[in-house]
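Supplementary material to the annual report.
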Amino acid sequence: MNPANFYALIGIGLFSVGLLGLIINSHLLKKILAINIMGSGVFLVLVALAKRAENLPADPVPHAMVITGIVVAVSATALALSLMLRVASETGHATLPDEVEK
Amino acid sequence: METLTLLNWGFDILLGLGLITLALWALFCTDLFQAVVLFIAFGLLMALLWVRLDAPDVALAEAAIGAGLTGALIMAALARLQNISRNDHPDSGEKSNSKHGRLNE
Amino acid sequence: MTTLIQAKSPIPNTGDSMNRRTLLLILLLPLLVIFAAGLGYAVLLLPEQPQYLPNLVIENMDQSGVSHPVTAVLLNFRGYDTLLELVVLLLALLAVWSLNIPAARHKAAPNEVLDTLTNLLTPVLILVTAYLLWVGAHAPGGAFQAGSVLAASAVLLLLGGWRISVKLAGLPLRIILMAGPAVFVIIAVVTLLLEGQLLKFPPAQAGQFIVIIETVATVSIGATLAALFLGARPTATSNEVANEIDGEHK
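Predicted assembly:
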């Protein structure tokens, strides 16, 4: 197994960890962190697969896609945080309505 | 040559396992401030990872945007949650965790 | 009782919710392991790539106007993606502004460390922005990296209590925010009229087009990311509040 495949597996592990955190946690901020970790896992898989050929230079197209992805992820995170703040200021809990912790 | 590949592999394994550990820790700890700080550290380790994978542009973008700006955004949102819980809904919670004080002072 | 800033432990130990949550965890873990194993198998099963796309990029790079492959892909070969990305940034900002989050009315009384850091770093970060923007043509760098460094310096300033002056908070701010996508769209229309195809840069002028797009995009990206950090839309009211609280520090 070359390093690129190993990092792709780590990326899949990160995605799974993020998915677990997204489902289990009920606080919205933790959910947002979990989504970001899932995104980072996907980016890791993309860039790792760009470097599969051992002695050739890395493939620049996935790099460009991941740079675009990072910027889109930060704008989505900003929007998600604003939504969380609105939910918190309206209801007093930073959780989704059906998961309110007593 | 053998030791070089061994060292490379050791570094890779350490970096990869460190990433997964940070992710698990950040998602399953109780204190939100700790979770955000761990997330910023996670982003910085990712930047290191991009360099290891021959992707310097992605490393620059991740260090600045992914770790720096996302971390700052989430910290600011955490501080505003504190404000909201203190001002608008004083009856919906206990005293805020005073170990970290008010994040804006 | 739970506070807004204190997340309960994911597996609390109180009665009913414990059963529900541990049940969820017990159900989830095997499923996730199977899921991850399936994904891992799929990834390891991918055939060796035949190096089709990287060779295409390297062959056509001298027609793209820059000499760094990632910049060529970002701004020439897949320029449409970058155009849409700039628009996505702007859309996210519009959505955040429309949510009407109250401005962070913190005490704008920065301590000495933040003050000194901001004084020292802001000129350096602006220089680094210009450098990253320029060097993106032949080495790692480019508009997004430069724009994010600019946004970082703006975030430092915002943390110290600086707010954009009221004269600039209306139309000029909106023009700065919009300039990146707008210039890109104008150039796309120009190429549509000149060459008949969207975003097909003529090889002789491709470098100049790319420099223009990147420069305006850097300023736009920096302003948009900083505005996303601020959250509330800069208006006369929020500036007055900030200036009042600022008090003796002016």
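Chain C touches chain B at residues 1-10, 70-71, 101, 104-107, 109, 132, 140-142, 144-145, 148-149, 151-152, 155, 225, 228-229, 231 (CB under 8 Å).
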